[in-house]
Amino acid sequence: MSAVREALRHRWIEVRRAGVRALAGLSGLILAGLCVGAFAAILAGGLGLLLVPLVMIAVRALAGFFRRSAGERLGAAVESPYLPRPGMTGEFWPLRQVRLFGWIVTDRATWRDLAWLPLNVLLGVPLAALSPLLVLYGLYGVLLPITYPLIDQQVGAGPAHFLLLTVADVPSAFLAVPLGLAVLGAGLWAAPWTLDAHARLTAALLGPTRGQLERRLAAVTESRSEAVDFNAADLRRIERDLHDGVQVRLLALGMNLTAIQRLIREDPEAAEALLMETRESSGKALTELRDLVRGIHPPVLADRGLADAVRALAMDLPLRAETDVELPGRAPRAGRVGRLLRGLRGAHQRDQTCRGEPGRRSDTVRPRRVARRDHR
C-alpha cells in the first residue's frame, strides 16, 4: 500500500512540474510581444538600445530555466550556446550600452531564442499542458455528482457534458465518476512521458548546434595542444636550468671539497678560504634549487590563485611592471601560467610591461605588451 501511495505522490509531482512548464511557456507570448516592441523602438530615436538588452536578458533567463529543466530530466546538461559577455568595466555608460546591444544582436543564439518563443508556445506548451489538463478534466468528472446539483440549483445551467456522456440529473452524474477516474489515471500515467518528450524538444531547440559543438571541440583540442607544448618546453627549461646552473655548482662543490681535503694539512688558511667559498657556493645552489621549484609551481598559485601569482611574479621583475588580470572562467593551469610566464619573461628581456588579458575563450590568457618603461 505504501508503494502505491509513493507512486501516486511521484505522479502528482510530475503533473505539477508539467503545469509549471506549461505556464512558463505561456509567458513566452508576453516576452515575444515585448521583443517586437523593443526592436521596433530602435526606429523611434534609439530607445531600443536600452530596451532590447533588457528584454533579451529576460528571454535568456526563461530559456535558461527550460535548459536546466531539460538537463535535469534527460540526465545530461543542455549547455548554453551564448557567446561570452565582453568585459565592460569602467566604460562610459552609453558606450557600455552600445557594446551590450552589439553583443546580444550579433549572437546567433539570440535569434534562436526569438524563434524558440513561438515554437515553444505552439509545440511545447500543448505537450506540457496535456497531463495537467487531463488530471483537471478527470477531477471535474469525479466531482460532477457534487458540483452539478449545486450549479443546477443556483443558475439552472441545464445538462452538463463529460466526454460522450450527457448529465441531466444526479444519477447520470454518478455515471461520470468512473469515466473521470479513467481520465484522471490517464493524466497521471502520461505525465512522465510528456515531460520526457518536452525535455527532448527543448534540448533540440535550445541546445548548441553541431557547428558550435565542433568549434568547442576544436578549441579544446587547440588548448590541449598548447598545454602539451608548454609542458614539453617547461621540461626542457628545467633540464637546461639543472644542467647549466645547479649541476655546475654541485660539480664545483665536489672539486672544492677534494682541494680542501688536500690543503687542510699543507695550507690551513687556504683551505679555510676555499671552505668559505664552498659554503657560499652551496647557498647559491640551494637558492637556485628553490627558484627552480617555485618556477615549476609557485606556492602563491595554490594559496591565492592565478591573479595573485601573476602579481607576485611581476613584483620579482627588476623593473616597474603593471598587471591587469581578468579571468571570466577557470582554465587549464599549465596553459594559463605558461602564457603569463612567457609574457613576464619577455617584459624582463625587452624592458616592457605586460598586461594579462582573457582571450575570446575563457580557457586562455594572453600576455600583451602595452608600453615601454624607463626602469633606470
- Which runs of at least 5 residues are low in confidence (pLDDT < 50)? 331-335, 347-376
Most strands sheet: 2 strands, antiparallel
Order of helices and strands: HHHHHEEHHHHHHEE
Distance separating the two termini? 87 Å
**Physical arrangement of strands within the biggest beta sheet:** 1-2
Number of strands: 4
Residue fraction in strands: 5-15%
Cα gyration radius (Å): 36 Å
| Secondary structure tally, helices | 11
| Rounded average pLDDT | 76
Residues in helix, %: over 70%
Shape descriptor reads: elongated
Structural class of the helices, strands and pairings?
mainly alpha
How is this structure best described in words?
There is one protein chain. By secondary structure, the protein is mainly α. It is built from eleven helices and four strands; from the N terminus they run αααααββααααααββ. A two-stranded antiparallel sheet has the order 1-2. Strands 3-4 form a two-stranded antiparallel ribbon. β3 and β4 form a beta hairpin. α5 packs across α6. The longest helix is centred in the middle third of the chain and has 57 residues.
